[in-house]
Amino acid sequence: MMYLVYKLWGKVCNIFNMAGAFPKSWGDFLGVKWFFKGNKKRVLILWRCCCLAIAWCTWQERNSRLFENKVRQEDEVWSRVVFLTLLWAKSSSAFHDFYFSVLASNWAAAIT
Prior knowledge:
The protein is mostly helical and 112 residues long. It has helices spanning 2-15, 26-30, 40-67, 74-90, 100-105, 107-111.
């Protein structure tokens, strides 16, 4: 399970052009004050939504494995993380002028 979590965080770090060093707590993750390029408000919203989506999907995967004896592939979990991240971000006023399909195909366009 930890391997899956590290793989998901690795993908997120690549999207946000960050090093693989992780803060110590969830509060540090969500309150991150790193320098993001582009539209900082949008980047921060996407970052927070992505952190929460990984936490939610990891929890769901853990429960699925433990209680239902089902294991999803990494790509399935990642697709769910992306979907939830964009769905939650789209509900923010910062993303009201973006179509969901545009966000899904190119995160970089939304944060520049």
